Amino acid sequence: MSDATIHTPNPQAPQPMEAARLTGDATAEDIESIRKRTSVYVYEAPVRLWHWINAAAILVLIVTGYFIGSPPPTMMIGEAYQQFVFGYIRFAHFAAAQVLTVGFFFRIYWAFVGNHHAKQMFYLPIFNRRWWSEVFFELRWYLFLEKEPKKYVGHNPLAQTAMFFFITLGLNFMLATGWALYAEGAGQGSLPDMAMGWLLALVGNSQRLHTLHHLGMWAIVVFMIIHIYAAIREDIMSRQSIVSTMISGHRTFKDDRVE
Q: Would you call 143 helix, strand, or coil by DSSP?
């Protein structure tokens, strides 16, 4: 007889089903769970593409904007006439701003031609009482005061509010103040000056406008930190997918209950 240990099958152990050829070592309970999980196509490809390009552009703008507001010390990497470090920082900032501008106008366009989920970040249904109750419910959920979250196909009401104020209104503010500052360097009569030069005159002076633009940057930084934390938290704790939805476009649900 061989010295190898002889393993006797345990009749109590879950037995792999025929479908295991497709789903791994799936049991009857696993297969039933698969049947219950559903998904809805929420974010179309243009929306997902805009989201990631927008995120990259904002990251570049934050880093370069910080250095523009707080210039780095002189870097002794060569003679002054051989360096253009700050010029490259400004160029990266202006290039990312132009990408952000074109992308935002495209996103506004897609709100009209895309599916109804593409419109959600551009309005708040403030006259809907149920929407307000769910805003406060989500606030309690994020504060760990609710035991179980609700299910949402698009953004939940609290996330919709944050997106409206920090992205829809926030980007408008940053683009307006940024182009007004750019108009000062572009000179009178230039296209940026004709488009946004009036804002500089309205604010009063460029230093005040710089301060407002800089404060707006820090508001966006705070939003990004909270946004990333909330997305990861919801992916783990909520009843639907979050992060993967902005990659695939499909919102996958973890149970078949409506509420």
A: coil
DSSP for 189-254, written as a single string: TSHHHHHHHHHHHHHSSHHHHHHHHHHHHHHHHHHHHHHHHHHHHHHHHSSB--TTHHHHSEEEBS
The pair of structure tokens assigned to 11 is 């009749």
For 220, the token pair is 């966006």
Torsion over CA of 220, 225, 231 and 237, rounded to 10 degrees?
Answer: -140
Class of the CATH-defined domain 123-241: mainly alpha
CB 85 within 8 A of CB 113: no
CATH, range 41-119: 1.20.950.20
Higher pLDDT among residues 228 and 83, named by residue: 228
Whether the model clears a pTM of 0.85, i.e. scores above it, the answer is no
Coil vs helix vs strand at 114: coil
Compute φ and ψ for 252, nearest 5 degrees.
Answer: -100, 130
pLDDT in tens, 172-212: 999 999 999 999 888 888 888 898 989 988 988 889 999 99
Indicate the domain borders of the chain. 41-119, 123-241
CB neighbour class for 201 (10 Å; exposed up to 12, middle 13-18, buried from 19):
exposed
Look up residue 71 and give its two tokens. Answer: 């210039």
- Band of residue 34 on the pLDDT scale cut at 50, 70, 90: low
Q: How far apart are CA 20 and CA 138, in angstroms?
A: 39
Terminal-to-terminal C-alpha distance of the chain: 60
| CA distance linking residue 174 with residue 185, whole number of Å | 17
C-alpha distances out from residue 245 to 34, 48, 112, 248, Å? 18, 9, 21, 5
Structure tokens at 47: 């929306």
Determine whether 180 is exposed, middle or buried from the number of CB atoms within 10 Å of its CB (0-12, 13-18, 19+): buried
User: How far, in Å, CA of 53 to CA of 110, rounded?
Assistant: 15
